[in-house]
Amino acid sequence: MSQSSVDTSSTMHNIRKFIKSLIPASIFHVVRDVPYYFIDLFSNDRANEDTCPPLRLMFDGPRSKEKFKVSGQQALHFYANIAKISQDSVMLDIGSGIGRKTIPLLSFLSPAAMYVGMDINTAGIDWCLRNITSKNSRFMFFPVNIYNKFYSPNGSIIPGKLVLPFADNSFDVVALWSVFTHMYPDDIAHYISEISRVLKPGGQLLSSYYLMNDEAFSRVKDGTALQNIVHTGDRYWTNNPNIPEDLIAVSDDWLRLEMEKTGMAVDSILYGAWSGHTVDAALEQMNFQDIVIARKR
Q1: Alpha helix locations (H) across 21-168?
Q2: Which domains does the chain have, with CATH numbers?
Q3: Staple 176 to which of 70, 101, 118, 207, CB 3.0 to 4.6 Å?
Q4: Separation CA 297–CA 295 (nearest Å)
Q5: Listed residue (93, 261, 75) closest to 185, CA to CA
Q6: Coil, strand, or helix at residue 40?
Q7: E strand intervals along 38-106
Q8: H-helix or E-strand spanning residue 266
């Protein structure tokens, strides 16, 4: 990551953090989204909106069509070459968003495969149904009304009470990208337990986190980390004490222990650029957070 990219990312992060500290989350989302409605309105680039959503709908990552496509390419590289998932996989994507990591799977997964996406954002689900399911009916999406103070304050399902609506041993792969980074430890532990239940033996859990260990603590303390995660909660850390769900970090050791409790084993961790690690150039955008590859024993 170039120094100019780091500086720009840090500046935008500080601006967003300042705005979040002034206004409620629901108003913040409106303020954040409004400019992109006007950009979309006056944009002449609408020819490929069936494979790349308008900027106003890119709620789950950078608001850039170029970065949207790069994210998909990096996800495909990760799935195929690092996690080495089978092209016949039955896959569950919790927090499927606007489909930025899903679209490339249309050409990767075989006719025998199946993909199920779930998300709290109904606009994202609607777009994915229109533009992904319409191309392949084995790609399915449904909304889930989970409560989150920052992203879904009107949600009715408490995360720690969620029961995934699938039978035991249903999936080869479960993925969660930038989902556990907005959840408290007890809720993460519950999700991992449910995920272990629905995974087939030998199935993979692919997920991202902000993981705190001695190295991460040191880099946060000396100011070289790209996230200022300095506020302490109950078994977690955050950069936003007003709404911790905005960004939650958990202990590296705690996560490994919770995995073990539910019959999961951590195969490998790709530590992210957020804490100063050098990441694979082919995963530069995707590996900002820490990526954990785990397997059901």
Answers
A1: 25-41, 65-77, 122-128
A2: 3-296 (3.40.50.150)
A3: 207
A4: 6
A5: 261
A6: helix
A7: 90-94
A8: strand 264-270
- For residues 1 and 278, give the distance between their C-alpha atoms in angstroms, rounded to a whole number: 8
Only one residue has tokens 């050409």, namely: 107
**Which residues have C-beta within 8 Å of that of residue 188, sequence separation ≥ 6?**
180, 250, 255, 258
Tokens of 264: 């999961």
- Parallel/antiparallel/unpaired status of strands 114-119 and 139-143: parallel
Region of 166 (left: φ > 0; alpha: ψ -120 to 50; beta: rest) is beta
Q: Give the Cβ contact number of residue 242 at 10 Å.
A: 14
Closest C-alpha among 102, 71, 283 to residue 175:
102
What sections of the chain are H helices per DSSP?
3-20, 25-41, 65-77, 122-128, 185-198, 214-221, 252-261
The tokens describing 151, both together, are 């992203």
pLDDT for residue 48: 64
pLDDT value, residue 202: 98
Kindly give the confidence (pLDDT) of every residue in the chain, 297 residues in length, as a single tens digit, with 9 standing for 90 and above. 444 444 444 555 555 656 555 666 667 666 777 778 777 778 776 656 678 999 999 999 999 999 999 999 999 999 999 999 999 999 999 999 999 999 999 999 999 999 999 999 999 999 999 999 999 999 999 999 999 988 888 899 999 999 999 999 999 999 999 999 999 999 999 999 999 999 999 999 999 999 999 999 999 999 999 999 999 999 999 999 988 999 999 999 999 999 999 999 999 999 999 999 999 999 999 999 999 999 999
Residue type, 84: K
Measured CA distances, 171 to 79, 167, 192, 211 (Å):
15, 9, 14, 26
Q: Tell me which residue of 45, 16, 17, 14 sits closest to 33, measured CA to CA.
A: 16
